[in-house]
Structures are given as C-alpha cells and as structure tokens.
Amino acid sequence: MSHYPPDAKWHEMERGGIIPQAGNAEEYHVGGWRNEHPVRDDESCIDCLFCWVYCPDNAVYVKDESVKGLGFSAEHCKGCGICAQVCPKDCITMVPGGDFEDAGDEPEEA
Amino acid sequence: MGKEIALEGNEAVAEAMRQINPDVVAAYPITPSTEIVQAFAQFVADGKVDTNFVAVESEHSAMSACLAAAVAGGRVMNATSANGLALMWEILYIVSSLRQPVILTLVNRALSGNINIHCDHSDGMGARDTGWVQLYAEDVQEAYDNLIQAVAIGEREEVRLPVMSCLDGFLLSHSYELLEVETDEAVREWVRPYQAINPMLDIDNPQTFGPLDLYDYYFEHKRSQMEAYPPAKEAIVAEGKRFGEVFGREYGLLEEFMTDDADLIVIAMGSTCGTLRDVVAGLREQGVKAGMLKLRAFRPFPAEEIAGALAGASAIAVLDRAASFGAHAGPLYHEVTSALYTFGEQIPTNNYIYGLGGREILPEDLQSVFTDLTQVAEDGQPVEPVGFLGLRE
B198 vs A16: CB contact, 8 Å cut-off? Predict the structure, then answer.
C-alpha cells in the first residue's frame, strides 16, 4: 500500500515530497512500456545472477541465490534487454512482443 | 563582547562560516567569491573547523554535493557568483523542493556575456523563482550578520528552506570595512546546534527522497512547498529581532529610512543603499521630503510590508541592478508595482536600471532620481517607464 492515497490533498503531503517508506518502487508498474520480453534458457544458465544485479527494475525473480526455474516479473520488466546484454552465457533472448506469462517467484514443480 | 576589526566582505563571510562550523562545505571557485572558499579551506587545513571540505569539479557538482550532504543530515554551506550560480541552476530547485536549509553566499556579479566579473544583481534576480530565501546586504557588517542569521532562518522547523546571503561583488566582497565580529562562543550559541529532519542516514527509518513525481502528485508537492514562505518571512523578522537582542543590531524584511513623512521614496537593494542613505540625508537638509526604502529580503517578497511603507508617498522610484530582457521594466520594479496594485496603492512609480557590470552609481545619479520624482509628483504620472543611471546616452 502506497503511503499516499490517490486522492491525497496538497496539505497531506510530507515535507519535501519524501515518501517515508523504502522499497516502494515495487508498487510502480512499468510492464506496459514493454514491446519485447526476455526468455532464459535454464540449461545454459550458471546462476551468476548478473541479470538480477543489472536489471534496473525489480524484474528478475531470484530465490535461494538461484534464478533457475523462475521467470521475470510482468509488472516490472520494461523490456530493456539489459539482462540479455550482460548474460555471460548468452542464455537470455529478447523475444518480440510484450506479453508473457508471469509465473511468480516460486520455482515451477519439476 | 565581540571586537571591532577591519575585514574585506569575503573575509567577514569566511569568518562567519568558521564560527558557524558547518558539517560540509563543497565549493568551486569563481570571482569575486573565490576568497571566501579559499580562506575557509585554510581554516579546514589548519584544523580550526570540523568541516568536511569537498573540492569538486564544477558548481553543478558543488551544489549536488551540498544537497546530498544536507539530505544525509548535515549543516551545509557554499559560496559562488554569477556564472557559478547559473551552473547550479538545476540543483537550486531540487534543494528547495527537498526543503534542505543549505546556506549559499552569493557574491553578486554580472552574468555573461560579454564576460564581466563586476557587480550587478542579474545572478540573484535570475534565481528569484528557485525557492531560495534571498537576503541582500548593504555593507560588510550586514554581510557577516546576514550569514549568521541565514542559518537560523533556514533551519527553523516551520521553514526548512535554503537561504542565499547576497553581497555586492567587489563593492563589498573586496572592500575593507570596520565591523563588529562576535565571539565564536556567542555565534555558535546563537545559531544553535542543527537538528536534521528526516535525515537519510537515519537507517532505522528508511525513506525515499526525490522519487518520480508525475501529474499525480507533483502539483500537490509544489503547493505544499509554497506554504513554507509565509513562515520564512516571519522567521526573517523573528531571527532579526533575536539577533538584535543578543548582538545589538536588529534586522527586518526592509528598512525604512526617513520614509514616515516622505513624499519621494526610492527603493533599492545592496550596497547602493549606503550611497542612497547619504543622498536622502542631504536632501532632507535642503528641505526635500525624501526617503529610502531598503529591501533586505527579496525572497520571500514582503509585498504587503512594502505597500504599507510606501503608502502616503507622492512618487516612487525603484532601482534595478539587473535587466529583465523582454519585460517592460526591471525585475524589482515588477514586484514593487505589483505589490502596490495588489494592496490598493496608486502611486506613480519610475524605474531605473543602473550599475550593470559594475558601472559606478554616484550620488549625483541618485540626486537626479529625486529631481525626476519631484516632476513625477507634480504630474501624477511617471516621467518614462524605464530610465538608466550612469549610462552614456
């Protein structure tokens, strides 16, 4: 829940326009900007986590220091392609089209 | 008790900074303010202050570093002039938007081009909409006193705004004057310890500073920022009074010199007020009902107080040490006549642009203004919208 409700009046703003919370970028959804999306080949992936480190948003799911079996956040991936650029194993491909299924941050059942 | 010594304006400012002992100073040199930072850097090197001095590569970086240090929770100071201020432009707005009481000494100098290092107010006037409080000094004593008060004004709980303490380049910055310098203990006690509000280094209370702020909240944030300026006006008066109680020199938003029964009033800012004061006193001896309104606080603009001080005059002149290109008169003229109109005073008002790029303003120039005003008072209308003093024409 954001600190400010959408109908907050000017006199209800915090001094200096700060948000007295951390980590609220998660609430800002940029998925609508995307016109291509990443697809990872988990067999080539070595779990270096470069994609997670370099992602300028919060789009790369990681659990127990591994991205394998996890996808990307449809709400936070802008389709910028940085993850594909920085991957040392070239295992991420940017595929045309904004739509993809967000499977969440739980690993798929094998 | 303080002691009376002779200092240059820049030295007096550096002395005040040493006494205030800020947490961080980040600065880049530019004439005529260079000496302030040079002297202060020596205080740092000699261990006379606890300040973390950051030498940066530009004024944009200087103000950026000041902003960051202020958001982190420090008391922060800086000094610049003209083109240096222009390079800080982007960050000036962010400092005031984030409500950080950064203190900047602005040694007023003409903006290029052509290149000119001497005094006018084009730098300060250009920054009038940036959200900074602006104080203008008449002499070196006031430059020293204003800087100390700037700290207390900006840091008031209900204000929390950056303050520009302005003094005329060379005319004050490089002129030796006798002034009263207070003791370190008295100054430190007067400015009080700094208590940051919502400092970023308070890691137990993480917060987001300066986030993306689009059409959904930006307007509300700007409106709430506007709410800080009426308290800032009150703070200038209250701290000026408190300063007077402790050090014997009281200050306000403006100073009315022989205006009570004056027919002809001239309004000015900065060192010209010293010359104007003498001219007015001389005219009074000749029986002319002359007066001077010295504007100390340009931001927040004391519109109602100015209209009140001018009420009853027959003719007014506003002296602008800056041009506003494309406007029909100088920047101070617009503010003063707007104040008169808003508060119902219909007084014919002349505008004079003077002193650009350090051009001298002489007593006879100011006497000619009062001669004009005598005619304006008789005619009931301005002689011409904009006149020039000291211009070859």
Answer: yes
